Amino acid sequence: MNWPLAHFHPRLIDSLKHYSRLRFFKDLGAGVTVGVVALPLAMAFAIASGLPPSAGLWTAIIGGGLVSLLGGSSVQIGGPAGAFIVVVYSIIEHHGVANLLVSTVLAGLVLFAMGLLRLGSLVRFVPVSIIVGFTNGIAVLIALSQLKDLLGLQIQHMPAEFFAVLQALFSHLNSFNPWALALGLGSFLGLLFWSKLGGPNPAQTAKLRELLGDLPGFKGTANTLQRLPGPVVALFSLTALAWWFELPVDTIGSRFGSIPSGLPAFAWPDISWGSARNLVAPTLTLALLGAVESLLCARVADQMVDPHTDPSYHLKRHDPNQELMAQGVANFVTPFFGGMPVTGTIARTVTNLRAGATSPVSGVIHSLTLAVIVLLAAPLAMHIPLAVLSGILLSMAWNMGEWHAFVDQRAYSLHYKLLLLGTFVLTVVLDLTVAMEVGLGLSCLLFVRRMGALFEVRAKANPTAALGTTALGTSSDKPRLQQFDLYGALFFAAVHRIDELIEKVTPNTPFLLDAHQLINLDTSGIDALRQLNQSLIQQGGSLRIVRLQTQPMSLMHRSGLAQELAECSAELAPEVAAE
After folding, report:
1. CA geometry: angle at 535 spanning 531 and 537, to 5°?
2. From CA 182, how far away is CA 104, in angstroms rounded?
3. 252-257 long-range CB contacts below 8 Å, 24 or more apart?
């Protein structure tokens, strides 16, 4: 069988056709904006994952640049993401930083292979309930991981397990730092207020502006400030406040030292077969999570583009296979420079789109902007309080979670509730790998159960047909015909319905199955029908199946069951039709 491979064709190639100066200046403004926004987030994600802040910065620079250069989306921004925090921290805790780099390289190969084999559309088969469950679970774990720096607790080593984290936090409450809490809450609450001031909800924004509109100069100030990225404002203002008053809080400099202002050195990860064998589960988790996150992000960006008003709509819709191949290259390359896993980032992609981005050029400019900031202003990052970064991550976790899903689930089925709550609890209590494995396995079982329950065997209300000796080769008593209609799919989860039919077999009774609404048949169904036919023959009866659809008819002929039956036709038996 020939499996058609995807063509490696970055969206940048098409976007540069008929590229204009106006589009460049739009991309320039958007790229600089997103580059500034990415600065605090990249450092915060790395620190929360157990890595130095430089790992997040160079991941955003190198990985983000590769995603924009090679990706299948015009506006996707790649880099470190909050969804990876829990997974990366767990891998470091159990396998070490060196094996994290190896696992990321291997995940890159898996992602590239998924794109090359055109598996980008398969990611959409993950149920929404599972995605919402582990997204909310990750948001809770991110918030939990930030309590240490938010409260200023002096914990030398934070464990990765949920209950161990709770124990560590409670056992070190005596080291609580009120200055750190003030900075962290100021960052978190300030970002919530900022998002309402110029957020995407027009009604919410209008109400807030109406309440504050009487303040002197508020309207003009609000219009100016809402153009500034909230995380950047929180980072610079609170860092300056802590530095000016010399607040006794942990900073990037006190914990990690200065951020190197030079280019990162190329280093070959220590790859061995022994370590690779133990990294199968982490690698698959990174690859699957990266694929889901990046393609969901690209779909969100697609939905924000209006096909009726945007002439470049066809260029802004993403190619999922090309996007996976670009993510694979980015994840393969960044570990050689000390980076962490790369994926599409929803917050930065939305910011890029709203800032007026028209092509992947904006993503490249975003990476160059970050590189310039790191090379020229890296020493200033030493003064950033960790509590401020915790507040930024808490705000991100709050916005990341779809908390309304816990209320809305009351309107959905028990299957949906079980998948959502089960994935959420397993993500929080155990880990994301187990949650995704159990969630996907459970969703398959529940789907099979539901499809099996949809199959029905209905008896005719007034079966009046009678068949003579010529048709069935029986006595001249014209036995009463039992007629049944088959509905749905007869497969391994539904064969018990045929077993119930076998129990209704009486001596010298022919069965007629009307299969015009039987949409699918598998080998287990063939075996059940064969057993029904044998039971009827033993009792002196016979089995006839009529009005078969194409797939069931084909399988019955290929399995030989059609030849075993007294008659297998796509039309009703003449005697029945006469009735």
Report:
1. 115
2. 37
3. 252/43, 252/47, 252/53, 252/381, 252/382, 252/383, 252/384, 252/386, 253/381, 253/382, 253/383, 255/386, 256/47, 256/52, 256/53, 257/382
* Residue found by looking up tokens 């969703």 in the block: 443
3-class state of residue 569 by DSSP? strand
In 3D space, the residue among 136, 82, 123 whose CA is nearest the CA of residue 423 turns out to be: 136
DSSP 325: H
Neighbours of 9 (CB within 10 A): 14
Tell me, what DSSP letter sits at residue 79?
E
Rounded CA-CA distance 56/79 in Å is: 8
Question: Could you report the per-residue pLDDT of 155-202, keeping only the tens digit for each?
Answer: 888 887 888 889 999 999 999 999 999 999 999 998 888 777 654 454
The CATH fold of domain 455-578: Transcription Regulator spoIIAA (3.30.750)
- 324 within 8 A of 120, measured Cβ to Cβ: yes
Q: How far apart are CA 38 and CA 316, in angstroms?
A: 22
For the chain, domain boundaries: 24-155+164-257+275-416, 417-453, 455-578
Are the CB atoms for 577 and 546 separated by under 8 Å? Answer: no
pLDDT digits (tens, 9 = 90+) for 54-87: 999 999 999 999 999 999 998 999 999 888 888 8
What separation in angstroms does the CA of 538 have from each of 412, 482, 545, 567? Answer: 47, 16, 18, 17
Tokens of residue 571, six digits:
């039309």
Residue 411 burial (CB count, 10 A) = 7
Q: CA distances (Å), 328 to each of 93, 257, 334, 512, in order?
A: 24, 32, 10, 56
What DSSP line would sit under 102-119, residue for residue? HHHHHHHHHHHHHHHTT-
The span from the CA of 399 to the CA of 387, in Å, is 18
Q: What is the pLDDT of residues 191-234, one digit of tens each?
A: 888 777 654 454 444 554 554 555 554 455 555 555 677 788 88
The single residue listed with the structure tokens 């789907």 is: 447
Whole-angstrom CA distances from 320 to 130, 324, 453 are 20, 6, 34
Q: CA dihedral defined by 64, 69, 74, 78, rounded to 10 degrees?
A: -10
Determine the Cα–Cα distance for residues 532 and 541; give it in Å rounded to an integer.
10
Ramachandran quadrant class, 357 (left: phi over 0; alpha: psi -120 to 50; beta: rest): beta
The residues near 122 (Cβ < 8 Å, ≥ 6 apart) are 114
Go through 369-379 and write b for each residue having 16 or more CB atoms within 10 A of its CB, e for each that does not: bbbebbeeebe
For 287-309, the pLDDT digits (tens) are: 988 998 888 888 878 877 655 54
φ/ψ of residue 484, rounded to 5: -135, 150
* 242 C-beta neighbours (distance < 10 Å), count: 22
Largest CA distance in the chain: 108
Amino acid at 351: T
pLDDT per residue as tens digits for the range 20-48: 888 899 899 889 989 988 888 899 899 98
